[in-house]
Amino acid sequence: MGDSDWRPFIYGGLASIVAEFGTFPIDTTKTRLQIQGQKIDPRHVELRYTGMVDCFVKTSQQEGVKALYCGIWPAVLRQATYGTIKFGTYYSLKKWIAKHRADGGSIEHVPTNTFCAAFAGGLSSAIANPTDVLKVRMQVGEEKRGIVRCFVSIYELEGARGLWRGVGPTSQRAAVIAAVELPVYDACKKRLTVPLGDTPLNHFASSLVASLGSAVASTPLDVIRTRLMNQRKMKGQIANPNERIYKGTVDCFLQTVRNEGFLALYKGFIPTWLRMGPWNIIFFLTYEQLKQFY
């Protein structure tokens, strides 16, 4: 990558934003599927959608196509921070460690790549958590205000903790996704370079394989963090005995499995996978093309 260490950060952020715009409606259906059917949350007890297509159609018909892009600006802001830090940190840290290995970085070292990816994913996601909270609240359809007013409202009513709600599972999910996705992509790309060369077809195939593994590994944590982010707990509010909220990651996991069954942790899996596939394809194709500039 040359000596310009800032370029992986800039190109990672730009490619992430392009991928976000291309796949956001799928993410909206995933979020809505994940929050429905919660027996302890009276707002979302009802199973409004039978699947991704049904959610897509009903949302478009009842709220307009624009509703599928509700939350796009906090999502773009998230990618501008999360994507920039994640991919820049991964490739920069991976390169730095490779220089100090005995092989000089001539081969892909999976444990090193996994560590770098998990660290980069967890760190970037924790920093960008407030933008994720805004995105989830707007995607659910109950928050109709703009991004600034939504941010101020959450801070005033719920405090700083409201903006970092769900940061634990969010960071864990991001670390899992990155730890699977990035090393698998790099390994597949290197393996396929012999028959396919360093071409868009190689990048397409490698990103598709990487997305399946990361979707399987991360969906349960994604369900948990979505539910934690969507719940509200006002500052100084006296607990209502008839209303329950999740106390944290473990409680949300146990309550979800106990009340809805284990498969509830995979609610929204299809749109998650269908989004990760195109998202990764768009991202890596864009990123690899941007790399041609240096």
TrEMBL record:
<dbReference type="GO" id="GO:0005743">
    <property type="term" value="C:mitochondrial inner membrane"/>
</dbReference>
<keyword id="KW-0813">Transport</keyword>
<keyword id="KW-0812">Transmembrane</keyword>
<dbReference type="InterPro" id="IPR023395">
    <property type="entry name" value="MCP_dom_sf"/>
</dbReference>
<dbReference type="GO" id="GO:0055085">
    <property type="term" value="P:transmembrane transport"/>
</dbReference>
<dbReference type="InterPro" id="IPR050391">
    <property type="entry name" value="Mito_Metabolite_Transporter"/>
</dbReference>
<protein>
    <recommendedName>
        <fullName>Mitochondrial uncoupling protein</fullName>
    </recommendedName>
</protein>
<dbReference type="Pfam" id="PF00153">
    <property type="entry name" value="Mito_carr"/>
</dbReference>
<keyword id="KW-0496">Mitochondrion</keyword>
<dbReference type="InterPro" id="IPR002067">
    <property type="entry name" value="MCP"/>
</dbReference>
<keyword id="KW-0472">Membrane</keyword>
<feature type="repeat" description="Solcar">
    <location>
        <begin position="108"/>
        <end position="191"/>
    </location>
</feature>
<comment type="similarity">
    <text>Belongs to the mitochondrial carrier (TC 2.A.29) family.</text>
</comment>
<keyword id="KW-0999">Mitochondrion inner membrane</keyword>
<keyword id="KW-0677">Repeat</keyword>
<keyword id="KW-1133">Transmembrane helix</keyword>
<feature type="repeat" description="Solcar">
    <location>
        <begin position="198"/>
        <end position="293"/>
    </location>
</feature>
<feature type="repeat" description="Solcar">
    <location>
        <begin position="7"/>
        <end position="96"/>
    </location>
</feature>
<dbReference type="InterPro" id="IPR018108">
    <property type="entry name" value="MCP_transmembrane"/>
</dbReference>
